[in-house]
Amino acid sequence: MKKIVVSLCLMASCLMAYGQRTYRFERADRLFQEGKAFFELRNFPGCSDKLMAFKAISHDRDLIQEADYMLAVVASEQGREDAAAVMERYLSLYPDSRHANEAAFLLGSYYFAHEDYGTAIQWFNTSEIDLLGIDQQEDYAYRLAYSLLQLHDLRTARNYFARIEEVGRKYRVPATYYLAYINYAEDKLKQAEPRFEQLKSEPAYREQSLYYLMQIHYVDERYDRVKSEGKALLSAYPNSRNSAEAYRLLGDVAYREGDEATAIKMLDKYVERADSFVRGDLYILGVCRYNRGDYPEAIQAFAEVVGEEDELMQNACLYLGQCYLQTGDRNRARMSFEQAATLTFDPKVQETAMYNYALLIHETSFSGFGESVTIFEDFLNRFPDSKYADKVSDYLAEVYLTTKNYDAALASIDKIRRPGRKILAAKQNILFRMGVEAFTARRPSEAIRRFDEAITPGVYDADAYSQAYYWRGETYYRQDDFNNAAADYRSYLSNATDRSAEAYPLAYYNLGYCLFKQQRYNDALAEFRRYINLEPRKESVSYADAYNRVGDCLFHARQFEAADENYTRAAALQPSSGDYALYRKGFLLGLQKNYQGKITVMERVVREYPESPHAAAALFEMGRSYVMLEDEDRAAAAFTQLQQKYPLHTLARKAGLQLGLLYFNSNRPEQSIKAYKKVISDYPGSEEARTAVQDLKAVYVDMNDVAGYATYVRSLGDMAARFEVSEQDSLTYFAAEKRFLRGESEAEQSLRNYLRQFPKGAFSARANYYLAQIAYDAKNYEEAKKYYEVVIRSGDTKFGEEALTRKGEIEYMNKDYAAALESFKRLAAIATTAEVRDGARLGALRCARRTKQSADAVKMADELLKNEKISPEIAAEARFLRMKSYIDLKEDAKAQADLVTLSKDTRTVYGAESKYLLAQRYFDRNEIDKAEKEMLGFIEQGTPHSYWLARGFILLSDVYARKGDKFQARQYLTSLQKNYKGGNKDDVMAMIDKRLAALK
User: Fold this and answer.
1) Alpha helices in 557-614 (DSSP H)
2) Hey, which CATH number is domain 903-1000, 1.25.40.10, 1.10.10.10, 2.40.50.140, 3.40.190.10?
3) Which of 497, 547, 766, 961 has its CA 20 to 30 A from that of 524?
């Protein structure tokens, strides 16, 4: 019985399996049919679902191919991003498909819809139009024609559009429009016009038809029709994309008919709407604005006309010059007249422009080599019968007064027997400017002499007179002559003609510093406060610094709370340079016995400003505060950190003494001995070392180890003599020192006698230093260098900085740049003041450049330029040398940035050369317009460094030669040849001759 049951079960399972297979086949066919039905009903989501399900279970290749086609069409119809990829994959899988022709058409249509007209044409050309349906054939023809039109194949596009116009239904009107457009584009206006007239009745094309008809009527000078079509267009379509052009044509027509008010109204609307402009119409707008006295608006219009050298540009430049004159911008007026004068299209325009150009050069002191003389003379030669000839002749008599050739101007003035007040004012101004040039070039004696000459005659040019006092004060200040500097700042303040000038509040700031340097703190406080009240530039470094100085003055007056408030304000104003203010705040907390507060502030100085000159002092003060708090371990840690981070700082020596004393007082004699011995070994010639020897003796005595102390002293050898000062040693030295300090001639012999008696004496380093100074002053540099080296080797820090400074200077003077570099590097490391450190870095920077150590040069320059208080002259030199180093290191972008910064001030030789180099770089990169702009700006700025200005003229000639403007290229060379005073001293004349020969 069991066997029968099993057999029945097996039969049932077989029947079920057969039934499942039948169901699966029937289901796949049904899925395909349903998907196809959905496809025909354009139910694309349903179609896609059914066909994807069909493909998942079917193995019928024919039906799968058909399903893939329908799925590709669905992707296209749904506008999916992957539609093209799906269709192309279909064609790749089934290259012989019966749908291949229609698939290619659909692909072309896809790319047409995505405005990829080139790819669309490729696929349309793959498809056969005759194999498509009737509706598809017209779609094909229109889309192909439009694509061809977009790719400027007008001839082929015309054929398709003509056929569509003839037999089409869906695209007949668009085809007519595009045929009219093609005729218009090919200048077949008579054929285009009737089609556009016909299309005016078609709503979809009425706007564009009115627009093109307006253009056609304008060309044919049918201005009434232009106005009627234009008004109809703007009335019916106020926001038309063609409205800008419509307004342009209406404005042009109004101008031609003499209606300037309407012309301005229409052209203004044109400018408001247009993305780009027709130069002639903007010229018309400019003329209309000029005639009505609307000069700023006229400038805007004319500025869009210049750029393309033609008669239109020449006239626009003449108008621009007049407009700038009316608005008071004489500099731009001069440049505009210059441009018009160089163009030869209209001789009358050129004559007027050249006269105005020459006159402005004369009146604005714009000249590099006295060109105004040449320009006036050229004018008379070119236009001898000009109505301006008499005036030009008069100007020639006084032309030197407006040049920057100050020596020539002074020579001319001195020839005048009875100069009038105007001439004397010019002379005062020239002398003042010569003083500024000498100051900028770091020739202080010459600067003071020129300022003296400017001040002595009295007031002729009030501004030059008062500024001469200011700049003479600056010169005295740089020489540490604070009395004379203060007197001159006061004279400037009492004579200043413009109290809104930048220098006016700065004079109080500088006066404050003069008094501060003389320790007249109450007087300095008043001046710094006056500066703070007057300075409008609250973001300036000097403004923040003034609060620091106010704090210092109050500190000296023991007004600690007020001092703290000012330090806080200074740090808030200039957080990047707030180290000093923070340090002083900490110091004040210590005076108020808030030692923990002081420690917190000093920790911030060390953490936030590790490169600060106050960081070492902050560590030292931290150690002292921990001592006051009786926290010996943290005090020792602070002093040790100071020694490790700043081993060459003077406070590192003092920290060593503090460590020795700290360990001794806390009953750690071994550590105390170690600390004292470190001071003695690291700084053998210092006062601290002498103190350490004495304190060390007390430690050994306390340990009952006098023998140990004696053994240690003997181990010092010759060095021990420095620490044991005999009475005869000190008496002999101090007698010699007195003679040196009094400037007696016997001082040298006395010092030599001391060294003979005590070659290793306690004061031997100082004696050698004084002998070095005597030799240096006598210009016996090699002998001085030997003495300085003895001082440096001695380890005596009292004169260490000065000895290293002089040694480096002598090595630099002797062109031993490698040795000088090491001297200056060492000096920068041990410098105790920012001034000495920056001087050392500048010396190291110069040496690094000389020895081609570009990376070192960049590092030194970066360190110098971090200090916002360095003088502009040093900053300019540092940036210039860094720029040269960047070029060597192939860091072009950084070099370019420095060149741009330097070139802004052409008063210095670095700025003048950089201005030229910047333009030369543009020229070498074929950025001709930039090179031209830089050199024209250079000539406008002017410079006392005539060589680099001459090189700029030559470069401008090269610029115009490359532009093909040989006339202007020759003009710059011949002008330079006539006016440059360098003669045969340099290579300028040879460069001129070479280029003139090439231009012939």
Assistant:
1) 560-573, 579-591, 595-608
2) 1.25.40.10
3) 497
